[in-house]
Amino acid sequence: MSHVAPNFWPRRCRPVLLVLALTNAPHLVAAELARFYERQAEGWFWYQTEPSVPPPTPTEPEPESKKEPPPTPSSETPAGKIASSGSAPLSAAWLRAHLEDYRLQAIDDPSPTRVALYLYLQKLALDKASRFTESFQRVVQADPYLDETTRRPVGNYANLLNRVAGEQRDQVLQTLAKEAGIWLFYRSDCPYCAAQAPVLRLLAQRQGFAIQAIALDGRPLPGGAFPDFRPDAGQAQRLRVVSTPALFLVRPPDGIVPLAQGLLSLTDLEQRILLAAHEAGWIDADSYDRTRPLVAALSVDASDAFPAEVPEDPTDFLALLRERARGGLAAGKASAADPLIVP
What we know:
TraF/TrbB, T4SS_TraF-like, Glutaredoxin, alpha/beta
């Protein structure tokens, strides 16, 4: 017998069908009929039977000897737990770990004693932070290796530093342009190459760099930029050009240094030229440092020749770091008590 959807029968026949179903299937109970109508969203699959679930397996009771005794209530109060901390009482680590506990105790029991206790602990923490801030400022002000204004001024004076560094950058680039040039690898159908061309023309006008355009497809750039281009003769493959525009700094006969394979602004291009020339040894360290907007390039170097274990005495440890900040130029051990360092 084929199954027929319930909605196929006329509305007046549905009570008769229900009576026949009850007569022919006496095992159905009221709960199953209710679930049948609740599952009306199943549509044509209303006649599916639910999967049978195996009854749960009875478990044997655990022997009394194996049962763990119930935990006994601890007689230690929250305040006792706080006092048993491993940190030194009222230290910064102790306050960080337990100040919140005292606050919660004061919230649960806002008695004058508990509230005053929390407020005193909070004031202690704030006073510790204030004293640290004041000492921080004094130490930084007295030590040029820690004072960042030694490296770069703040406020409007930074503009003066940027202007001076820009003038030095132009001088170094103009000197480098007498010995080096730029190779531009491009394609005539590359819109980014056409956008890079005006930037390179401006670089040639300002700094004097010679620009040699190399066409990967043997065709000129749109707009007639760099009409003295040359077709690629295998240089792109040797230099691993994967995208255009590709820029290289060339200094015959020393070599070729990559700059970028993508669009660059004039500022980024000049900075990359300086960095590439410095890494290649074509610009000495002093000339390169003058192009950076820094008054003094001070740093603490711990890359090599550092002890395997740091000194336990903070005075000795501080003296070691100060000596490394000077670059090890001072003779003897620096005094950790005096923040002024005289080479």
